[in-house]
Amino acid sequence: MVALQIRDVPEDLRDKLTAIARERGQSLQSYLLDVVSDEVRRRDNLTALQRLTGRTWGTRLSTDDVVGTLRNAREARDAELGVPEGNA
Length: 88
Prior knowledge:
By secondary structure, the chain is an all-alpha fold.
Protein backbone atom coordinates (compact mmCIF):
# COMPACT_ATOMS: atom_id res chain seq x y z
CA MET A 1 0.00 0.00 0.00
CA VAL A 2 1.22 3.50 -0.78
CA ALA A 3 0.80 6.74 1.11
CA LEU A 4 -0.85 9.79 -0.43
CA GLN A 5 -0.21 13.27 0.86
CA ILE A 6 -2.20 16.42 0.25
CA ARG A 7 -0.31 19.59 1.00
CA ASP A 8 -1.52 23.06 1.85
CA VAL A 9 -5.04 22.09 2.94
CA PRO A 10 -6.80 25.07 4.54
CA GLU A 11 -7.41 24.51 8.24
CA ASP A 12 -11.16 25.17 7.99
CA LEU A 13 -11.46 22.50 5.27
CA ARG A 14 -9.46 20.02 7.36
CA ASP A 15 -11.68 20.79 10.36
CA LYS A 16 -14.85 20.17 8.34
CA LEU A 17 -13.48 16.90 6.98
CA THR A 18 -12.47 15.83 10.48
CA ALA A 19 -15.99 16.59 11.75
CA ILE A 20 -17.55 14.53 8.94
CA ALA A 21 -15.20 11.64 9.69
CA ARG A 22 -16.03 11.84 13.39
CA GLU A 23 -19.79 11.77 12.61
CA ARG A 24 -19.20 8.57 10.65
CA GLY A 25 -17.14 7.06 13.45
CA GLN A 26 -13.99 7.09 11.34
CA SER A 27 -10.56 8.59 11.50
CA LEU A 28 -9.84 11.34 9.01
CA GLN A 29 -7.49 9.01 7.14
CA SER A 30 -10.10 6.26 6.93
CA TYR A 31 -12.77 8.71 5.78
CA LEU A 32 -10.54 10.19 3.08
CA LEU A 33 -9.67 6.71 1.82
CA ASP A 34 -13.41 6.03 1.48
CA VAL A 35 -13.87 9.30 -0.42
CA VAL A 36 -11.05 8.48 -2.83
CA SER A 37 -12.30 4.89 -3.27
CA ASP A 38 -15.86 6.12 -3.98
CA GLU A 39 -14.55 8.54 -6.60
CA VAL A 40 -12.68 5.75 -8.39
CA ARG A 41 -15.71 3.44 -8.18
CA ARG A 42 -17.95 6.13 -9.72
CA ARG A 43 -15.42 6.63 -12.51
CA ASP A 44 -15.35 2.87 -13.14
CA ASN A 45 -19.16 2.86 -13.32
CA LEU A 46 -19.15 5.77 -15.75
CA THR A 47 -16.62 3.97 -17.95
CA ALA A 48 -18.81 0.84 -17.97
CA LEU A 49 -21.88 2.88 -18.90
CA GLN A 50 -20.01 4.60 -21.71
CA ARG A 51 -19.06 1.20 -23.15
CA LEU A 52 -22.77 0.37 -23.32
CA THR A 53 -23.73 3.63 -25.04
CA GLY A 54 -24.78 3.20 -28.62
CA ARG A 55 -25.64 -0.45 -28.34
CA THR A 56 -29.10 -1.60 -29.23
CA TRP A 57 -30.98 -3.59 -26.67
CA GLY A 58 -34.44 -4.91 -26.45
CA THR A 59 -36.67 -6.80 -28.73
CA ARG A 60 -37.59 -6.77 -32.37
CA LEU A 61 -41.21 -7.38 -31.44
CA SER A 62 -43.71 -4.66 -32.15
CA THR A 63 -45.79 -3.09 -29.42
CA ASP A 64 -48.83 -4.90 -30.83
CA ASP A 65 -47.00 -8.23 -30.57
CA VAL A 66 -46.13 -7.61 -26.92
CA VAL A 67 -49.62 -6.37 -26.01
CA GLY A 68 -51.25 -9.31 -27.81
CA THR A 69 -49.02 -11.83 -26.07
CA LEU A 70 -49.80 -10.32 -22.68
CA ARG A 71 -53.53 -10.24 -23.42
CA ASN A 72 -53.50 -13.91 -24.49
CA ALA A 73 -51.53 -14.96 -21.42
CA ARG A 74 -53.89 -13.08 -19.11
CA GLU A 75 -56.95 -14.57 -20.78
CA ALA A 76 -55.48 -18.07 -20.43
CA ARG A 77 -54.66 -17.40 -16.77
CA ASP A 78 -58.15 -16.04 -16.08
CA ALA A 79 -59.77 -19.03 -17.81
CA GLU A 80 -57.66 -21.38 -15.71
CA LEU A 81 -58.66 -19.55 -12.54
CA GLY A 82 -62.31 -19.37 -13.55
CA VAL A 83 -62.46 -15.59 -13.72
CA PRO A 84 -65.47 -14.51 -15.80
CA GLU A 85 -64.64 -12.49 -18.90
CA GLY A 86 -64.53 -8.74 -18.29
CA ASN A 87 -64.01 -9.13 -14.50
CA ALA A 88 -60.23 -9.18 -14.50
